[in-house]
Amino acid sequence: MEDHKISMDKIVSLCKRRGFVFQSSEIYGGQAGAWDYGPLGVELKKNIQNAWWKEMTQLHDNIVGLDAAILMHPRVWEASGHVANFSDPLVDCKQCKMRFRADTMDQKALEEKKCPACGGELTEPRAFNLMFKTHIGPAEDSASIVYLRPETAQGIYVNYKNIAQSNRMKIPFGIAQVGKAFRNEIVTKNFIFRTCEFEQMEMQFFVKPGEDDKWFQYWREQRWAFYEKYGVNMNKMRWYHHEKLAHYAKDAYDIEYEFPMGFSELEGVHNRTDFDLTRHTEYSGKDMSYIDQDDNNNKYIPYIIETSAGLTRNLLMFLCDAYEEQNLAKEGEPEDYRTVLHFHPKIAPVTVAVLPLMKKDGLAELAKEIQNDLKEDFVTDYDQSGAIGKRYRRQDEIGTPFCITVDYDSKEDGTVTLRFRDSMEQVRVRREELSARIHSEIKNYKRV
Ligand code: ATP
Q1: Rounded to the nearest whole angstrom, what is the distance from the C-alpha of residue 311 to the centroid of ligand 1?
Q2: 267: which of 97, 309, 337, 346 fits an S-S bond (Cβ 3.0–4.6 Å)?
Q3: For residue 315, how far is the Cα from the chain centroid?
Q4: Average pLDDT over residues 120-133
Q5: Is the full-model pTM beyond 0.85?
Q6: Probe target for ligand 1 pocket from 129, 152, 308, with the most ligand atoms within 8 Å of CB
Q7: Which residue, among 226, 288, 214, has the nearest Cα to 251 in the 3D structure?
Q8: In 260-366, which ranges are E strands?
Q9: d(CA 184, CA 33)
Q10: Helix or strand holding residue 89 (H, E)
């Protein structure tokens, strides 16, 4: 019997089959640690990003956005500690040349200095810096070194004064940013979970020292509520409290999700103290302190609470969380499975599919007209090929929450069938009421 439990292989295969994610440079044998997002993948990614952006900026009066450059002055990464500290301890097998991260590999094998793959002798662990280094300009000398940013956060820190001044922001306030980050990860496995090129959604919240614990708690609650709001199965989420803290942190929690390979980090909420701004003051010679007009012009370096989520890792989480192989057979009947992605309608790459029951008798034309009516409001799809049941299954498999079927009655009485992905229930709706009805269904959506 087939196994109907979710596995990473099934997610990878669905992603390729339906155009969510492809291996980078596949025709050349692929590029390790890099993936390309196909038509449905970009829609999904954009929707997750928009949901996060709305949550942060639109729903919080005191948070504004930024889009900083990927290439920054190299001193930024000295100040941040990345040049000195941003490394993984690596060991190599002298025999089979496999490479492992000493902090995540089997500790017994590490102690015995034996390769977990072939039993060969392992080297001593050595620090391997994760930043991609390149050169700007024609000369490849040390003066021309630049790094591809390994996190988006630093672009926010170096701009915090520009933003505070130009936008008259008063502490407490936050800056949100979504963008690419790069890490020379040695072990890139589990599909898009850990890649060399990825996207982050980071929000840095600037607070008065002494108020940091309160805001840290606040942001932990906010981030948890975000995933709940977008229909994630919260039984698969948990908090992980860091015992060993990064050099900049006072306190740190991760939100972990139960991916097919087990619970793993999805997002970090960190109290980064005044570490980064103090260091930038030292390294740049520019005073990064804040004058608090609401507190007798008191001058201080703000503390920073950071919420740092992977956008591409979120995309994998939403895919895994939505995935179900559902047996539709009634008791006594042979098994009949449909693959369905239960995306929240605001996350789903396609919101509405319009399907004429038949191509002929003017139904296709009418369905196209209805699709055109809806295009301004929703991402739509149109499909006229194959039996209607098969077309529903195709939409279920990409997570389309609403299908509209145009049939012979539609021509007579102006109504269509609206089918719901999760319950598979169908209702008749007047054509002119479709848009309002779908809007209201999206607003009131609850995952069952
Ligand atoms: P890990 O321990 O998994 O390497 P980290 O603790 O170094 O991650 P952070 O530096 O806190 O991660 O990055 C914040 C977020 O960015 C992570 O929670 C994750 O969602 C995402 N992220 C980090 N590294 C990668 C990567 N190589 N590929 C995809 N997403 C990543």
Answers
A1: 10
A2: 309
A3: 4
A4: 92
A5: yes
A6: 308
A7: 214
A8: 262-271, 290-292, 298-300, 303-310, 323-327, 337-341, 352-356
A9: 9
A10: strand 87-92
